[in-house]
Amino acid sequence: MSTPRWLSPAEQRAWRTHLALHKLLMHRLDRELQEHALSLNDYEILVNLSESPGRRMRMSDLADATIQSRSRLSHQISRMEAKGLVTREDCRDDRRGTFAVLTDEGWETIQRVAPDHVAGVREHFVDRLTDDQLRELESAYGPIVDHLKKLR
């Protein structure tokens, strides 16, 4: 067994700062969405559907886009169906496939909630950084995101 490459103090601080930022930011944004009776997962699904042609996506593609198992997404979609935000439709060309479809109520919800959510993202993240820091962040995280996408 090889010796672990332990993190240096600087690497450890950077890693823990990243973890704290992610947890605290997601917690804050989720709490703000709860005021609209939505979770971050609900919101992410509404965004993906609202940006898709016909406001619909195959469930398998939506699971990939939201980085969820198909089973977890199915349960999430069931809860959202009960709220009237989405519906499921069978795929005409593939009997095994199912679409998640944004309802009119789901469309109205994303239009109503998005301005508040974006204001929260600005207040708690974007406006705390300079333009140069935002570019550096994108530059630093981009290769990590690409690497992790390949591993999925």
Q: Can you summarize this structure?
A:
The chain is mainly alpha-helical.
Number of DSSP strands?
Answer: 3
Cα gyration radius (Å): 19 Å
Strand content: 5-15%
How helical, in percent, are the residues?
A: 55-70%
Morphology: globular
- Which assembly state applies to the chains in this document? single chain
One letter per element, helices H and strands E, the order comes to HHEHHEEHH
Counting helices, strands and paired strands, the structural category is: mainly alpha
Distance between the termini: 26 Å
Poorly predicted segments: none
Mean pLDDT across all amino acids: 95
Brief descriptors of the model:
152 residues, mainly alpha, three-stranded antiparallel β-sheet, 6 helices, 65% helix, 9% strand
What does this structure look like?
- The chain has 152 residues and is mostly helical.
- The protein has six helices and three strands; from the N terminus they run H-H-E-H-H-E-E-H-H.
- The protein has a three-stranded antiparallel β-sheet with strand order 1-3-2.
Write the layout of secondary structure elements.
Blueprint: H1 9-34, H2 40-50, E1 56-58, H3 59-65, H4 70-82, E2 86-90, E3 98-102, H5 104-124, H6 131-151
Antiparallel strand pairs: 1-3, 2-3
Helix pairs in contact: 1-5, 3-4
